[in-house]
Amino acid sequence: MGRTREGQAAIIVGKTLLQSAIELQLDWQYRCERGTCAQCRCLVEEGHLQLSEITDAEWDRMDEDELREGYRLACQAKVIDADTTVTAKFAPYY
Predict the structure, then answer these.
(1) Model's pTM, two decimal places?
(2) Labelling 54: which of 25, 45, 61, 67 has CA 20 to 30 A away?
(3) CB atoms within 10 A of CB 86
(4) In angstroms, rounded to a whole number, what is the distance separating the alpha carbons of residues 54 and 77?
(5) What is the C-alpha to C-alpha distance for residues 24 and 61, in angstroms, rounded to an integer?
(6) CA 94 – CA 90 distance, rounded (Å)
(7) What would the pLDDT profile of 26-52 be if each residue is shown by its tens digit?
(8) Phi and psi dihedrals of 20, rounded to 5?
(9) CB proximity list for 89: less than 8 A, separation 6 or greater
(10) How far apart are the C-alpha atoms of 25 and 61, rounded to whole Å?
């Protein structure tokens, strides 16, 4: 997810990565939208600073190494600024 380019979609400020993916009709699997199932896990490759802080739900569902590597729950990571590109790809556990 990021600025409009082939294979990417426009950033939607104020929404989570999952809300944006749903609105943009991207193929992004999820179940709960609350951070309890972790099915929407993604890897943020670029633009970490444009996202909200890691939530308690993310700390509860993922380990510190995953978070350090850039994994987030798309339902928890809210876009707070669109001054640069945010690149995230769906990366489920299974």
Answers:
(1) 0.85
(2) 25
(3) 26
(4) 7
(5) 26
(6) 11
(7) 889 999 999 999 999 999 999 999 999
(8) -65, -45
(9) 42, 43, 45
(10) 25
CB 34 within 8 A of CB 19: no
Q: Encoding tokens for residue 58? A: 């993310």
3-class DSSP assignment, residue 45: strand
Distance CA 17, CA 28 (A): 10
Strands 87-90 and 71-73, sheet pairing = unpaired
Residues 6+ apart with CB under 8 A from 78: 14, 15, 16, 17, 51, 52
List CB contacts of 12: < 8 A, sequence separation 6 or more: 19, 20, 23, 24, 79
Is the pLDDT score of 4 beyond 90?
no
Which of the 8 DSSP states describes residue 6? T
